[in-house]
Amino acid sequence: MIDMKSYLPEKIRNVAIIAHVDHGKTTLLDGLLKQSNVYRDNQVVPDRVMDSYDQEQERGITIFSKHTSIVYHDYKINLIDTPGHADFSGEVERILGMVNSVILIIDAQEGPMPQTRFVLSKSLKMGLKPLVIVNKIDRPHADPDRVLNETFDLFVELGATDEQLDFKHAYASALKGYAHLELDDPKEDLRPLLELIVSDVEPPKGDLEKPFLIQAGAISYDDYLGRQLVGRILEGKVRKGTPVVHIDRTGKESKCTITKVEGHLGLQKIEMEEAGAGDIVCLSGIPEVTIGDSLCDPNAIVRLPPIELEEPTVSIDILVNDGPFVGKSGKHVTMNKIRDRLLREQRANISYQITEGENTVTVAGRGELHLSVLLEAMRREGYEFCVSKPKVILKEVEGKKNEPISRVSVEVPEQFSGAIIDQLSRRKGEMQVLHTNSEGVTELEFLVPTRGVMGYRNEFLTSTKGLGILTYAFDIYAPWKGEISGRQRGVLISMNNGKANAYASFNIESRGKLFTSPGDEVYEGMVVGEHSRENDMIVNLTKGKQLTNVRASGTDENVVLAPPEKFTLEKAIGYIDTDELIEVTPDAIRLRKKYLSENDRKRFSRSSK
Fold first, then answer.
1. Do 82 and 196 lie in a common domain?
2. Residue 398 vs residues 339, 551, 594, 595: alpha-carbon distances, Å
3. In degrees, to the nearest 5, what angle opens at C-alpha 366 toward C-alphas 393 and 58?
4. How many domains does the chain fold into?
5. Looking at the structure, do residues 143 and 60 belong to the same domain, yes or no?
6. Distance between CA atoms of 539 and 531, rounded to whole angstroms?
7. Residue 15 and residue 106 share a domain
8. How confident is the model at residue 370 (pLDDT cuts 50, 70, 90)?
9. 82-130 pLDDT per residue, tens
10. Helix, strand, coil shares, percent, the chain, to 5
């Protein structure tokens, strides 16, 4: 058991770590855990140990906020690792109410980036005073002084108070495991950062003698205990067997009893005899709890305001898979099963908005990546379904149609900058920044309608030969910018059912880029490739070579095919057009036409003859 008497509110520090993608949050947390002696001497610890979700490990990004804690001298430091991608900003917004400060990590070479702006603005609005860590100072082109000045300018731009502008800072190399307050200080370990947290982060407010009160900032699940509330105790104490009143978002009250109180130490959950105000804990015994719900003392009912999140900006429709391959690899194919799974997700993750229709379920989220993570999770659980092209969510402001605008940041070699400016301008982008440094790298910043950014990444990588960096985050709602041209090329559509073969693929390859390999099953209406021209084209991938009894002089030519284009979910979401669907199954991602018109069927008939 953890002795909670050692951790009065004034001996607790609650801190969230925020940063742009790949600026070193999870690596820094790794270093803090290793240097806090929370592991056994012989324990094998993987890199980025907090990224425990399988998609986080595969994608190399943090998707869900996670809580851990370390003990430094006689202080308990609760640390929350947060996602750096703006699509998962709901994870950041809902845990900021659990902490008293944030550690803002900035790359010593790249400086503040679009996602840095987003997470920092949320922290400043909540009145938190960040600590700034300039990370990766051991990199060859690190320029910590410039980055620190840019960070100060960003604080000013976001309307920071005088107290917030007077932020404390340190320099670090999370990978090498050291931090120091001045550039000339010795590079030993991360203790200077821990000292900074203890001395400059305010202890949590709360009175141990007041009636118990907590709000759910996150939800976890245990196979034996069921749903568990994770949150910071606002007032009072709690222990196993404590009777409480659970108040949900509608105001409904129900009586429950706490069956287990747990805290974190390193990677482990440890049962606690008692927890008090200011600590972040995990409580069991409330089966219907969801994010934003309150627990309070039965003799002092308090209804806390709900956790407010930014509204979603992008939505997709999810439909039943009615294609010829339905049920071949998935277990859950009916609309009832799909709807139930999505509603369960909404109860655990309030950053999604689910709207039920007669034959569809509309899912709204923060962006293509945010939506694709949910779809990928469902796919791995054995669900089959179809997905429509994403649509931006419009707002009516003073009688005018407004749409979401994204702030797009681009770094490219100078020779590609002209092409990128042209492409983003055609997508109704407005340039805000243009700067070329001494290394010949051009930095561009645009404000672009979100619908103009969707599906652009593939074109961007092609235009820059893979040498460019593209990041974007939602910025504001602004008046509708007019029509934006969609995909520039048509698609190749299969005219019949069967297996694709090498001979037919080789003959069709000159007409465009294929999405299938020889031996793949195809069906009528399935999108099997991208046409090299603007119009769609009907093709027969199953047509075999005519055989005769006349021996050819010499040998048949060897068929060599280019590798087919394979789609991930987010790439497919960005690629499809309004009359197309993505067919998602556990073992395949296919594209297909939403419906075949009478003209299409006549063209199929003529082609087959």
1. yes
2. 35, 78, 36, 38
3. 145
4. 4
5. yes
6. 10
7. yes
8. confident
9. 876 666 767 777 788 889 999 999 998 888 877 777 778 888 888 889 9
10. 25, 30, 45
CATH number at residue 266: 2.40.30.10
Give residue for tokens 């046409």. Answer: 531
Neighbours of 66 (CB within 10 A): 26
Calculate ∠ Cα 391-395-397, nearest 5°: 155
pLDDT at 58: 63
Instruction: Characterize the bridge pairing of strands 526-531 and 588-593.
Output: antiparallel
Asked whether residue 34 carries a pLDDT value surpassing 70, the answer given is yes
Whose tokens are 């902490």? That residue is: 99
From the CB of residue 74, how many other CB atoms can be counted at a distance below 10 Å? 9
Determine the straight-line distance between the first and last CA of the chain, rounded to whole angstroms: 79
pTM here?
A: 0.79
Structure tokens at 197: 């947290």
148 and 256 share one domain:
no
Give the residue among 536, 444, 538, 448 at the shortest CA–CA distance from 487.
536
Burial, 7: exposed, middle or buried (Cβ in 10 Å; 0-12, 13-18, 19+)?
buried
- Let me know how long the chain is: 609
> Which tokens hold the place of 261?
């109180």
Tokens 């709807």 locate to 339
Reported as a single tens digit per residue, the pLDDT across 133-184 is 999 998 888 899 999 999 999 899 888 999 999 999 999 998 888 888 888 8
Range with the poorest average pLDDT among 123-132, 214-223, 565-574: 214-223
**What are the helix and strand counts (H, E) for the chain?**
15, 36
